């Protein structure tokens, strides 16, 4: 939280710099590519707000995924400032935790400091990070990679564990399978998913390039969310061996609105770190998104805390072509400049 002295000494952000920062923030991931964030440039810095019109009523009734998405955008924004040698100060929920009507965070620039090598590597990873639902190579995550990912989560006050115990992996698989079955047989969920599925170019939603389809049931230790509800999938899988990817659990000790925002920051730093390590990732969050299953998941995993995200992680097979970037809304659509009648 910035002090009064830091606020009074804050450096102004120009509209041009604010656009660059928000463009980086907009590259953050969000459930169904809903991009549920808005930014406002004011005299003393940037304010992050939730775009509640983009909350998923069925898949995310509490707005937990919305908060993780906005936290991920905040992480990118802070890194974009740091790589420019600026020192940001952040205050989460400055007007209280009613995230649907109050600011999620304020960001002010309180000084200057050169970026370090880690920050530069994370910023370089922002445009390269993509959700990748394709099969991974049979290569386990190294202890060094897991340590780097854990350090990334801890930088934002979260924790990360990468279960290798067979019994725990079976429990995770069972809960994911149960949640997947519930979603597949929920007509309202599938209608909502279809409403965010795109068959033509669009600035948001799930493009066909992000959808993976297999004519036969996909053989994986952990079920993948089925996004193939309209149109043609971007990737058609051939027969392949059973997938046994690495899994990452990211969580927090408490489960307040601020904790969920921090979890989003941690998730994004983990994803960027993974990208820098040439790891591919995709979310498997249905076991903690489906109503009533989060507590079951917490109990099954030995009360680790509040799991906020489950990620699948691994290495792509040699020669795998990179994915096309997922589209994003224009900066003009998500950034307001205080005192202006128009968006920048």
Automatic annotation (TrEMBL):
InterPro entries: Nitroreductase, Nitroreductase-like, Nitroreductase/BluB. Residues 128-315 form the Nitroreductase domain. GO terms for molecular function: oxidoreductase activity. This is Nitroreductase. The lineage of its organism: Bacteria, Bacillati, Actinomycetota, Actinomycetes, Frankiales.
